[in-house]
Amino acid sequence: MPVEATETEVILTHPSDPLTSVKILNYGATIYSWKVGGVDQLWLSSAAKLDGSKPVRGGIPLVFPVFGKSQDEGFENLPQHGFARNSTWEFLGQTKENPPTVEFALSPDLANKDVYSKWDNGDNDFTLILTVELDKDSLKTTIEVENTDKKPWKFNWLFHSYLAINDITDTLINNLPGEYCYDQLLKETYQEKAPAITFHEEFDRIYKKVSTGKLLQVIELGKVIHNIERENLPDVVVWNPWVEKAKGMGDFEPKDGFHKMVCVEPGHVGDFITLQPGKKWSGSQIIYKGDAIKLQSV
Ligand code: BG6
């Protein structure tokens, strides 16, 4: 059966390969497993809570309406990364047979009230539609944000994707050199000078306004592990917690699991998007398999 829905989750299986599947929790509309030919493409902490008691540590949590913490008016009381990842979304059903495609929705009536009420005092009307499309060797997630209010409001969006790798010390990410980034650890903005992104310690940078024509590739020992394409998502957060930060996160297990993951997070987080009443905005992430290394200059 290509689409199976239970009380708490939806599982899509590719019609031509029973070992290619995606599992989505209604909680946070969080994709917590994506397998291609039986191989996990996303990292999931062994201590991740899948019972709706806290955002999932791993998979693809959704970040809305704020990335990180913001002191901007209307956002200052919201917890880190907003409320989309800790609200239970509504499963709308299957919209395409092949590739199997499903939709989820979130609106104020469904949102986690405790957190939603901290965004502009819970005064913003919105509809989010998440579309998940499972192809043979790719996973596409699209978010559509609609302002159903009578006034404009602003927001960030981000797909917080935890990609599975074999070892972070053998991994690089290409096509970001020359881009401007805000280093969340140094609290500084600078131009990326390294010819490729490599990892030796905690890493937390927001690459801003990266042309969506640029493909991002996660390459391990010369082999492409993941390709990430973006539509209308100009910013890319790259994050690895390394030793100390992983130790400090109760739901991050095993503690040396930082070797096995890298977050490459397409979003619109460098500034807020202002959405006028009745207007829609959308953005997509496509993660796919494919061996060809593509080097693109700035
Ligand atoms: C990343 C941020 O996107 O998410 C990091 O850049 C943050 O600063 C990380 O630590 C995890 O956030 P959280 O709220 O899931 O622990």
UniProtKB/TrEMBL annotation:
Reaction equations catalysed: alpha-D-glucose 6-phosphate = beta-D-glucose 6-phosphate
UniProt-listed InterPro entries: Aldose_1/G6P_1-epimerase, G6P_1-epimerase, Gal_mutarotase_sf_dom, GH-type_carb-bd
Source taxon at top rank: Eukaryota
Positions bound to substrate: R57, Q80, R85
EC number(s) from the headed UniProt entry: 5.1.3.15
One Pfam family hit: Aldose_epim
Gene3D superfamilies for the chain: 2.70.98.10
GO biological process: carbohydrate metabolic process
Keywords, alphabetical: Isomerase
Any one GO cellular component localisation term in the record: cytoplasm
GO molecular function: carbohydrate binding; glucose-6-phosphate 1-epimerase activity
Residues the record marks as active site: H160, E265
Family, similarity comment: Belongs to the glucose-6-phosphate 1-epimerase family.
Function: Catalyzes the interconversion between the alpha and beta anomers from at least three hexose 6-phosphate sugars (Glc6P, Gal6P, and Man6P).
Record protein name field: Glucose-6-phosphate 1-epimerase
Organism from which the protein derives: Pachysolen tannophilus NRRL Y-2460
